[in-house]
## 1
Amino acid sequence: MFNIKKISLFGLLLIALILVGCVDVSNNQSTDNDAESTEASEVEVKTPKVKEGEKVVEIGYSGPLSGPGAQYGLNVLNGLEMAANEINETGFDVDGTTYKIEIVALDDKYLPNETGVNVKRMVSENEPVAVWIPHSGGVFATQVYNEQDNFIIMAYTSEPRQYEQGNELMIGIPPKYNIWSEPYSNYMIENFGTKMALLPTNSQYGKDWSESIVPVWEEKGGEIIYKTEIDFAKETDYFTIMTNALATDPDVLFVGGPSEPTALVIKQAKELGFEGGFMIMDQAKLEEMSGFLGGYEMLTGSIGSLPIEDLNTDASTTFVEKYKELYNEPYATSETALNYQSLYVLVGAMKAAGTVEDRKAIMKAVNEGIQNLSEEELVLPLEGIAEDGALQWEYDAGIVENGEVGTYPVD
């Protein structure tokens, strides 16, 4: 296991410079409080034990570890830590040298300007080969300089726009959310009807997801009959919002955001008598929501991300059991599993490239590294990496019928 130590704060001058160039595109949280947004976060350095002759490869993490997104960020970091601990049991060989993984983790409170400060600090003090960033705003903020500063962005966000820049040092970890638009629409129209009310989170991610689903829904004969957004940082009572939405008599509700508040939105709809379908954005997880709702019964009629434990493969079952035991958690979500596996992908690429330093060579070797992964390391089936840097997973959607989780195919 890792030992944790603290490292020094980075200079205020660098913070001021970075804040000029970073824009919040992941959510609408206020960043007007300069004291809060420029306050340097405490660093956790998770250092492996190394034997004589062994060397360390540093990776970074900048994501939410406090505030409303803390559990989400922790799920990502836990997946990285779990994989690193396994890898560090023996280390991995690159060109005759044994390496182990050191994780440098910083809290960015889900704020892109904080991500920019954090990652610049890591690059200056630690020179990580890659940095995991679990939100689109942070990815966009660091895309501005990562190629120049020579580190790989491990982007855990389903936002398709992150690929538009053509960044040569970026790996997109989860499936793009626009792959869900057609199967979600098909299932909902087939089973519930054509009238949909939009009630997404008010973040940029929520706005973009809505813009992705609307044209597909309408092309299939669907109609948007109500539209609003929910500010989960401020709203805790959804009665008025839901009453207004249900007054339009929708067949389907489009909802999503963090798992807990999304579950409460669904609960409010059920308590007001809604019997239609729920189309759930991929940030909210069926398994986590079932924990807040006392089971899957209230989620009947939903389509969303398939729970990892319902993949029912040897690798996924082993992973879920091990994760729940190690972290005393009731669920192992896709955040944990995909980031766990993505560290194995990066290590496999370094081994295949024969270098831990040449970032471009590592990127070119990702497909070869994936082909060399063992069955135990493939929690989810992974075909390779596309030219734009997106990992290509085989992943079906999850549906809930009569309180039971099932699968719905995605082409």
## 2
Amino acid sequence: MNTRAGGRSERVRRDFERIHGRAPEGVWAAPGRVNLIGEHTDYNDGFALPMALPQAAVAAVGRRTDGLLRLHSAQGDGRVTELRVADLAPGTVPGWARYPAGVVWALRERGLAAGGADLHLDSAVPTGAGLSSSAALECVVAVAYEELYGLGLGRPELARVAQYAENAFAGVPCGVMDQMASVCCAEGSALHLDSRSLEVRQVPFDLGGHGLRLLVLDTRVKHDLADGAYAALRAGCERAAGLLGLPALRDLAEAELDGALSRLPAELVPLVRHVVTENGRVERAVARLADGRPEALGPVLTEGHASLRDDYGVSCAETDLAVEAAVAAGALGARMTGGGFGGSVIALVRAGEAARVTAAVTQAFTAAGFGAPAALEAVPSAGARRVG
């Protein structure tokens, strides 16, 4: 399967014509992402360093004048989901359709003239792998509607709309990092994101030029961030910030961490320690990339995984084993990426060792009785855009 958006646009256009009986007005793409470092920091107003993947959600879209929203997915059951935009409300749309429908609802909640449309979606972003498949669906609809309906929203505003759709319509209390990565990333760069101001900086990330590759090892353990665990973590962080008299944990300096932890209930200590030290890891990672030393990211990644495992408690046996096996086989560093509770691990490797590291992780999984992981290569790619 060709996962690159440009190579799929004509097929998606043809499928739209077959399903909806007319030509679309355009084809758009929005990528999934991997987060290099900065996990569970975005809803604490902190920092992150994601990059877009070549794998993207592609959507052919045409406006309608009758107020109907007609959704079809190449990954769905073959049926067209038909909704009235005026009737959209949280909790009324099940399954995958709640992500694109939620964006239309969120735009209308802002008082914007977002009307009906026919959509055909085809996503190459693996679902449940911690690679932001839902954000890709949201963001491709957001950028298509922005252009078709002339909404006048900038990229950060589109990301906020998509985040609001996921929070309020789909019921997942995520931060804004996934959506900002999907709409704002640039080819060949990682995105240094300030989640409070939404200020971004493109940080060159030339893997090939330094003889490196970034592997994504999907454990195939599916995560569901709507099951309450994610919300409980966020609530714990917000409670801790309140007890410390801070707007958000982002406002706690690493030098002040020990004193702050001594004033908190024991159950909140590891959450705060992770968030504050993770913000520090983002800054260290950005500095190493700015110095032209991407290979020096390795120890930062592995340190970040230990914090997610031991302090934040969002790893699992499969992701821990993948990290351990990758590092033992020669990876420069590895960590789980995404919200956790399964999903994927990233491993920074020298180009000549990619196959050996992948094989070592697969062998470790077999020995442990786990299903074989899926492997793909993460290449810093472009954010959401029109492709046809």
